[in-house]
Fold these 3 entries.
Entry 1:
Amino acid sequence: MAEALARTIAVDAMGGDKGPSAVVEGVGIALSSQGGDSLKIVLVGQKEVLEPLVRKAKLENDPRVTILHAAEVIGMDEKPIKSIKAKRDSSLVRAVELVKDGTCKAAVSCGNTGSLMACGTIKLRMMPGVERPALAAVWPSQEQHFVMLDVGANPSTKADQFVHNAVLGSHFCRLTLGRENPRVGLLSIGTEESKGHELIQAANERLKAVGDIINYVGPIEGFDVFENKVDVVLCDGFTGNVLLKTSESLFKAFRAIVKEKIMKNPIRILGALLVKGAFKDVKKHLDPDRYCGAPLLGLQGNVIKAHGSASSVAIASAIRIAGEFIEYDMTSHAESDIAKANAALAQPREAVAAEEAN
């Protein structure tokens, strides 16, 4: 019984572009593929909307699924702080509160990113020693996948916060991608330490100062991001969000261009049929639904942000990631390394203060 309760996940059923139906379908996929009786779901949202969808998905008699009524919905264009104050009975707020009071061990939402970040920060508070949360995303490179953060939680990242993100991102990489000693790179305009603006140069010095707490390999540039040179890419939230959305757009454009060129004549179509297996492998490798769950790292609780346009398969993927976070106990694993990193960062400052005092 204790094991079952440990994997209880609150799912905000009202957020996202595809509506509650995709969320309920995603819950059904997750329950059928991920975990027998050990996975339990609390669907949070308007009961009158969810009950017919639950019946349609044949989940109404499933003891692993319950509905918690929340009368309000936070829209995608609403202001973060204002929305969570004005709509305390929203599905997003109620889902995070279930984590706060211990009813659930994680919350999943594909709703308003800013509102989810603000709600998570206010309700769950930051992990000791961490200043700001960070959103982490998993992306494909040539041979495997890598973690990139921050992709939108904190547009104005400070130098010390890059170190916190390096620690959190390394733990997330170990959990999700199985890398024992993930290589961490700082995104800049060149690999030389003299390049980049003052913040990047300051962050580089801080990252070097923490020693072997992280496996920092130095600055990287845009050419390196998708070439399997690092396992964790560090950037500020503004840059990360732009890179994330630009990459998504590029992948879609490339797929459309390839399809258009192939369909131009019968010979190309025949050639495409001959390499159909290769195309399937490429599609699987680039599939965004595979890791559709960006955790909000640095909180004292597990909050997973799914893409606003997440499909039912993507929702199931986000639930899987939430379950992995629960089992790994991300907060406990990262806290000690955060403390060590902050202690290492404090040493040079103490030395400078002592020198100035003399």
Entry 2:
Amino acid sequence: MTNFNVPGREEVSASNQEIFDSLKKALGMVPNLYAVMAHSDHALGNYLSFQNAKTEFSNKEKQAVNLVVSQVNECAYCQSAHTLLGKMNGLTEDQTIEIRKGGASFDAKLDALVALAKEITAQKGFVNETTINSFLQAGYSKGQVIELVILVAEKTAMNYLHAITKVAIDFPLAKTI
């Protein structure tokens, strides 16, 4: 089996060293899944641009999407990272678990978002019209349907990357559900 090491700062290109420095300053660490992307001279920078692109969704909503997508895609790394980030953005531990299960009974609008994100992920985009209509009726726009597909794709890329690299989880482990 191919082993993907987590490269240190001295093992990556100059441009990735700058990104490592920025991540360390902002987060206090370079997460292993970001670091492994530095095997490529371009992937980490490209991904961070993709991840930090403008969106109409709040950070809390983005974390809800990240949680449910990572659950559907069975990515323990991203479940763990986004449980922590979800709590930093106003979710409780119990709410992160409920979201991972595909709902958010504590917030009707967030519930519609989570349901559509889950269905987009599980059905590879072939979603039920009723789910889209519920999303729109909850107060989201058609533009946000498009943005949600992009958010699902962004998180799915990371889920797949972890499935391939199997780097160690360097966040507190999310509870198994």
Entry 3:
Amino acid sequence: MNNKLKNSIKFSLTIAVITFVLAAIFSSLSASLLSKISWTLGLLLVLFIVLIGIVFDMLGIASTAAKEAPLNAMAAEKVKGAREAVVIHKNADKFSSFCNDVIGDISGIISGAALAIVIIEIANIFQYNNGSTFQFTLNVILTSIIAALTVGGKAIGKYFAINSSTNIILVAGKVLHFIETNLKIKVLPSSKGKRK
């Protein structure tokens, strides 16, 4: 088995474990929050989860579409976040996989589960039994709206990701620079060492 295949399998297993852990954390948090808040706040939480999915989808695409030369130039000029942006671009396959597949897919699954809880709460408020026409209609309408917002939002996000990829990755680099510098949390692999 060659090294590329071994690394690919290792990365796939790692990302699967990370997805499992994050999905468990986010789904339990959202279910816990939804049981304590009103249906209107629950609907806002669902919209927030959808927004997270859209933003991370945009980041994943931007990382693969960004041009390395301007990022290197900014890194040479010591622009904050530019070094991190270069590392993101060099690891675009892994970064986009994490953003699109892990966070993006988890957001889609959790928003659907959270929406189901909100629909049940609304039906309970109006004292409709599970499986009633009202609940069925509400389910169809809200699910369709959330699906349209998700797909439409991701389509707009893709446009910006392709046309403003360098700026988007620079902003992501600045956020990661802040996290690594101020919170002392190592997020990205070192940019040194693996140069040929």
